[in-house]
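User: Can you write out an input/output pair for a complex, sequences first and structure second?

Assistant: Here is one pair. Inputs:
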Amino acid sequence: MNYSFRHYLRHFPLRYYLSGGLFTTSEQVGVFFLSPKTSSVLLARRQRVVAFEENIGDLPDAPPVPSKPEPSTTGVRTFTSKLLARNRLRGKAELVLLPDCTVSDLYCNVHLVPNLRESTVEGILESLAEEPRQVIGVWDEDRLFRWAVLDAMLKPVTGHLQGKHSQIIILGMPADYCADCELWTERQDAALLAIVPVPVACLAWFLKRVPTQERTAFLLLSLTSSLALAVIQDRKIILFRQYEEDVESVRQELAQLAKQLSPDKDPYVCVWSWSSDEDPVYSEIQGFQLTGSVLQQIEGGDITIQRQRAPSLATRSPVALLSRWLAQEFK
Amino acid sequence: MKNLFLSPERIILRSYQRELVFRGVGFIVLIAAFLQLPILFFALTAWRDYQAQSDRKVQLLATENELESKLMAFKDTRQKLGQIQQWEPIIRGRLPCGAVLAAIEQTVPADAVLEKISIEAARFQALPVVGGTYRVPEVYTLSLQGSLKFGHADELDAFTNELKKRLPIGSQLVRSKLLEGTENLVPFLLVYSITPAGNYSALGVQRIADPDRL
């Protein structure tokens, strides 16, 4: 980042400072799960979950959802200010957006470093911005994308790749949608911490929270509009593929990959679904279901939301647990 | 994964708002700006005063130009008035002798006979006028010689004082003397010094109007 005092003075956040931001220390984190089918938000303050609200997609001034036209209804007060007021919170909020994109709205792929023309992350990002075909070969999208490069453990990388990394993950999302998210957050008078696609968030959670020992793990993600399959070896992602809800082809490909990558042992297949209800994927794919009591064990219990003048609420929704983990990670 | 898919500009702006270093700098900048407020206020006031004075100066200059252009039409009149004003000390220095004689006539006692009245000008001052110089006397000497009937010599004092009252303000009695005479008459001599001041109201001469001060 190129910081300069002149730039700072030119963009001096006077309104933010004078509205109390200069001395604000404790802020709440809101994690939004955004998909055309359902949207929810989890509000956490000081490692404690304050609220988990579902079906917020149709509310006025709701955050932009991928592949869905932005609702034009905006009230006098912003969505975030109303959300904070509902839960008796004050101050500014920091937001993390988890868009559940369609296959065409998310590019996520593992690339072997020796196969890349560019040797630095900066070079790769520059080439992707100029012409994605220079880096990822086949690319038929007309839309502008924003790009990011992570290592195989989903950590940010910079500089030279040779000798440090054998493979990297290239991520891409439509620039229009990212700009919409930024504008919406600015309107909310909040800080946007990151736009993390749901598969990426799930993979990061899986790498950190689910023990795989030295086995090759196959993680199948059942998302609202697609399926995603990731292969993890030595806590590194070595393969990632997305499917448009064709479970049969996923099952076949999973069998082939298992034979190829884990020939000696039984494949360690894990299935994560966004839905709290029984997902049909569970019955069609034989694997370890990351749901219900399993999630409860991994996360150390359900999420309990203390409410004033009302009984406490408990939830073990996979989306809520994922959101809480992200809120803790970003705090 | 922090800052994932955020534009660099947005990340920088968020840093300005949230990071402790920038908030510290912001605090210093705000305090410094707050301390500048009185200076700015006084600077603003001074600037407004200066602007008002400048505007007033421009207005006055415009008025001056306007008046000067109007005065141009009166140039000949002013010139003539100047010439007339040159005559003012000359006219002021003149003594209305007729009025003086009338005053003597009105105040002389019935038992007195005047033999000689002389008015002499002295201490001349040369004043330039168009076409040359004019000699203006600064002092006039009025001398009266006459006689009083024997036994009425005490009327001389009354005559002296009465005449002095009639003479212009600032006139002084220089000499008043009874001389040796014959059996029936007592001669006397009176000398007054008259300084012309232009005000002869005591003599009964009325002023026409105040002089024009142009």
